Amino acid sequence: MRRVLLVLLLPALAGMVASVLARSGAFEHAALRELAPLLAIVGMPLLWLWISWGVAYAGGWHDLAKAYPLQGEIPVAHRWRFQSIQMGLSSYRNSIHVAADSRRICFWPMVLFRAGNRPICIPWPDITASPAKVLWLPMIRLHFARVPQHDILIRRSLAAKIRAAFGDAWPVG
Q1: In sequence order, which residues have a C-beta less than 8 Å from that of residue 127 and are 6 or more positions away?
Q2: Residue extent(s) of CATH 2.30.29 domains in the chain
Q3: What is the pLDDT of residues 45-82, one digit of tens each?
């Protein structure tokens, strides 16, 4: 929780410092105009990395990646690209790739969202699946043995594809 608060408060603190410096007259307007392109070139990628990292912490991706790190290669047996999942406060819409084989299921984000979001590979025996609803949408909740405080919600259509490919391995719940 402290990490999430730190992630949320850092930009606010930086904004307050910039505001104080601007009001004090420490920078001339001409100098700021010359620095603006540099600030945009450096600042925008840093902001993108900060947001991606913050989403990973807020939603629980970071905790799942520590408990279930990728070991070896991502399975190639079956892959479903650009899927949507939900984890806690974070919603990854059409940006997650899913792969599975008879031993495990893996989740990893598309390239733009990889900062702070390492691949997650969970063995089938550690997963319990149960039906869930988000608003009016039927979903499947994947619950994990090593990290019980975080769940992944997947669409029922993705669950059906995974179940069709790995019926015996799919966690019955």
Answers
A1: 105, 142, 143, 144, 145, 171
A2: 62-165
A3: 888 888 888 888 888 999 999 999 999 898 888 999 99
**Three-class secondary structure of residue 91 per DSSP:** strand
From CA 89, how far away is CA 164, in angstroms rounded? 29
Please tell me the pTM assigned to this model.
Answer: 0.78
Maximum pairwise Cα distance, the chain? 69
What is the CATH number assigned to the segment(s) 62-165? 2.30.29
As beta bridge partners, residue 79 has: 99
Q: Contact at 8 Å (CB) between 155 and 164?
A: no
Per-residue pLDDT tens digits for 104-113: 999 999 988 8
| C-beta separation of 115 from 52 below 8 A | yes
| Residues near 34 by beta carbon (within 8 Å), at least 6 away in sequence | none
d(CA 41, CA 81): 31
Torsion angle, alpha carbons of 85, 121, 110, 63, to 10: 70
First-residue to last-residue Cα distance in the chain: 30
Euclidean distance between CA atoms 74 and 86, whole angstroms: 21
Contact between 163 and 155 under an 8 Å Cβ cutoff? The reply is no
